[in-house]
Amino acid sequence: MWKRKELKDKAKKVVYSNYWTAIVVCFLIALFTGEFGTSTIGIWQSEDSMDPNYVIHHKIDWEEQEDTSLIQQNIRETLNETQLKIFEAIEANLNSAMKSQKYIFKIWDAITLFNFNKTRLGVVLCLTAVLAFAFTVCIADPLIVGGKRYFLKATEGTNTKITIVGEVFQKEHWLNVAIIMFLRNIYNALWYLTIVGGVIKTYEYRMIPYILAENPKIERKEAFKISKQMMMGNKWKTFILDMSFFGWNFLSVLTFGLLSILYVNPYNAATMAQLYITLKNENSNSI
Description:
The protein is mainly alpha-helical. The protein is 71% helix and 0% strand. The chain has helices at 4-17, 19-33, 54-57, 65-77, 81-97, 102-115, 119-154, 171-191, 196-204, 208-214, 220-231, 235-243, 246-254, 258-282. The radius of gyration is 19 Å and the shape is globular. The protein starts with a helix and ends in a 5-residue tail after the last helix.
């Protein structure tokens, strides 16, 4: 059975031997996909309901938006500096976990606006939802897979080339990667309607980007099947592994994301790559 310390020790060695390229890869992924919630805001999340606080602030009743914002502001004002930093760290990670489904919330907002006879604003919101959807499916999700591919390759040696990230965008790979990642996000969003099921499925689907990173041509059913097998009996341990980075994320908030960019993001990404490699080896007989 794998241990957190062993994974992290291996990850540190990977980061140290590929430090600058690892930073650049993680920065680009954070910038364009919002993959790392405590560093920088993704470009595609930067407007109205795509802002980094959208999942927290989202309300169906548009007439109550102003009152809700005032209540949230009052709550923040009652917190001391340390409590506020903790709240922001939790908030950032929650929004990071839900990033891939945010265009769904924007579509829902558009429908709500039409119900309030705000047709023009509804149309604008629909258009931005389409753009967010296209960017997520065509660029952001494959870029995330490219990042996983980079860190898997980085475990094999030093000075791993950044160009590895772009390999998933090759003509024979890109469409399959985009479709499977899209379906993963949709299935996950639907499972979140059951609340608990969404959390479970998030971890069950956790290895799909890594599976695609290693084999971009894999069939959809096979990718989901392998991820399910790898995560069987490992969901809780992986959750604890995620929580073990909370302290680092908290420190990153205190440094306005600088620590994330310079160390935490590569460290986290390398650790998760080590988890995939370990689970793959443990399940080699059944995969």
